[in-house]
Design brief:
Elements (H helix, E strand, L loop, with lengths): L1 E2 L8 E2 L5 H7 L10 E6 L2 H9 L3 E7 L4 E9 L2 E7 L4 H13 L4 E10 L8 E2 L3 E5 L12 E3 L2 H13 L4 E2 L3 E4 L7 H9 L4 E3 L2 H11 L2 E14 L2 E3 L8 H14 L3
Parallel strand pairs: 3-6, 3-7, 7-14, 8-11, 9-12, 12-13
Antiparallel strand pairs: 1-2, 4-5, 5-6, 7-13, 8-14, 9-10, 14-15
Length: 258
């Protein structure tokens, strides 16, 4: 049923069937992908890992700017899909929705986030919920400030991190799709709401998982920072953390039941 509003972004249709997806369902097998997936915002580290481990390519999603392969990775408990992800909620959810509709039932994402307060680079976060300050999620769930992340998947991530000897925090994440609109007053407002980190995709991916009946959570590591008195600090953008984050994510997804 279509619910209209004077603000177009709040107009929501709860019908799970869409025109593009219905067309794809005629040509794509329902179990194309393994039941578990890692959505990795780790850039070329994923293609390098795939090449080093001779991973087979299951599929690829072609977008205007690039092509995003989906690999079949091996973990101790079986096969998982491993995908190098594009930046931003709309592009990311084009990928998650496709995999959720054609086999994936349990997934986690892994990637960098911005620090909203004084946090060292490389600190690990597993948020319990995400603030929906982007547009994509409002086409997947009715309007609300927050979307929850799956507690079981969060537990798998936390267990994997603890096993590796690291610590995680669980503060909410602010998902914002306007990279250049993180103003001083907005930063203070988000901190007052309990957010300690910011990203560009989490709430939208969580919403797409809920609509498609999949379990989803995310592992973050801090990269750049808005928490310095001097303003924004790019630091190393978290590049040195990519290999560690990937191994933690693969260990975590291995704990989820196939």
């Amino acid at each position: 049923m279509l619910h209209t509003d004077k603000f177009p972004v709040l107009e929501f249709d709860d019908d799970p069937h869409d025109l593009i997806g219905q067309g794809e369902a005629k040509t794509v097998e329902a179990d194309r992908f393994p039941s578990r997936a890692v959505f990795a915002f780790l850039g070329p580290a994923i293609d390098e890992y795939a090449a080093d481990n001779k991973l087979a390519e299951i599929d690829r999603i072609e977008m205007i700017g690039d092509v995003y392969p989906v690999y079949r990775a091996k973990v101790p408990t079986g096969d998982v899909a491993l995908m190098r992800m594009p930046l931003g909620s709309p592009a990311a959810v084009m990928c998650t929705d496709y995999l959720f509709r054609f086999g994936v039932k349990r997934a986690l994402a892994v990637g960098s986030c911005g620090a909203l307060e004084a946090l060292a680079e490389g600190e690990l976060f597993v948020p319990t919920r995400a603030l929906r300050d982007e547009g994509t999620s409002y086409h997947y769930l009715p309007a609300s400030p927050w979307v929850d992340l799956d507690p079981t998947m969060r537990g798998h991530i936390e267990a994997a991190v603890a096993r590796a000897g690291y610590h995680t925090s669980s503060a909410p994440v602010w998902t914002n799709d306007a990279f250049y609109r993180e103003t001083p007053e907005m930063l203070a407002h988000r901190l007052a709401q309990g957010c300690r980190i910011v990203d560009m995709e989490c709430s939208a991916m969580a919403a797409s998982a809920q609509l498609r009946g999949a379990d989803f959570a995310q592992l973050f590591y801090t990269a750049d920072s808005l928490g310095s008195p001097e303003g924004h600090e790019a630091r190393d953008w978290g590049y040195s953390e990519r290999a560690r984050a990937l191994q933690l994510a693969l260990d975590a997804i291995s704990r989820a039941q196939a």
